[in-house]
Write a structure and sequence with these properties.
The protein has two helices and no strands. The radius of gyration is 23 Å and the shape is rod-shaped.
């Protein structure tokens, strides 16, 4: 780990990141929520495409 006293510029003006008992950064929750939302959207798109294909296939002559 770097020496905090060596940090300069914008990073020096921000407080240090506090980690929990798991060592995860506090901003891990929004990242996980975004990942879950992205997975849900992908699943919805896949389901819609599958249903479209099934309906299209059944209605074809």
């Amino acid at each position: 780990m770097r020496d905090p006293s060596a940090v300069t510029g914008e990073a020096a003006s921000r407080p240090a990141v506090v980690t929990g008992s798991t060592g995860a950064a506090p901003d891990g929750a929004p990242i996980a929520a975004h990942s879950a939302a992205e997975t849900a959207v992908t699943a919805a798109i896949t389901t819609a495409r599958t249903l479209y294909f099934v309906v299209k296939t059944r209605n074809s002559p």
